[in-house]
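Continuing the batch. This is chain 6 of the set; chains 1 through 5 are on the previous pages. Same settings as before, nothing changed between runs. Recording input and output for traceability.
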Amino acid sequence: MMTVISGTISDAGMSLVALLDHVMWRSITFIYDQNSGSIDAGRIQGHAMSLLKALQERSSDIDLSIVRMDSTVGKKSQTYYMALQRAANHSRIILCETLHRPLRELMASAYDLGMTVGNEYVFIYVYLFQIPSEPPPEWHENDQLDEKVKAVFRHTLVIRTAEPKWEKSDGIMERIVRRGSDMFNRTYQAQYKFNEFAVGCYGSVELLISTLNNTYLAGGSAKLKSPADFLRDLKNRTFNLTFESYAFLPDGTRAPNIILQRFDASSARFQEVAVFALNTPSILGNLSPEQIWPTQLPPDRPHCGIHGERCTATPLSVGTIAICASLTAVITISSSILCLR
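Output for chain 6:
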């Protein structure tokens, strides 16, 4: 996994906190779908724990609320509505950790609750890498949820590893999928070509072969005695491979390539907004709020509070203040006279 994927869920957690800092959002609600009835429950739990760790390490200045739900138990609509209502009672910034199908249902429920009216809510979704069983956020699936999900995606930001250029790897992925189908006597399905893990494994093997050919098999005196020798040769280097470039940090680990996406209305797809420069002091650089959000960036909590509680009292006029001051003075003088007597 060191070279296969260009970023970990811990990198995504750092990116999430960097985004909150950049736009001065000081509160967030984390909707964690436990997915107890899914074979992917363990993977979701691992993601959730890493994201929670990043947020909880900043508990002194980021107000976090965790809302747990389970999309595999009970009546789904009720589960989603309750989770969203509890989330909205804490913050207008809502982080969702779930799988693709429950995410679409959760977004459709947000639409039903009127959370797309105005410019109040921001949904954030963290997506690590694409495999056939777990595609990236997609609104168009030819079902009754399509338009609702599309509407909520306009209010959604995605943090993910950089999206592969699938057109470059189409040929080799076609061969891999067809060979696998023949070997295991399974029906060919084109969707299996979209597998970042397979592309990453191909790149890792290519990296190994390239390094061995250029270093240890080129007739020099260097000899490969252990995997540690190979890893040392990766430090501070960038390798331009067939499908993408692999950049390595001074410690020999692959440099994370985490990006921020927002929904583009014209193409109806999530488009890259920025790259998180996690190894620099200014992770999002000079990225402006207008680049992150198509309209005015919503605050994490409204000026008047979640329920308007900060603005319920009628502002006092100058005359009212003067009368109150006079009454206070009269009461104070009267109390002093009584005490003297």
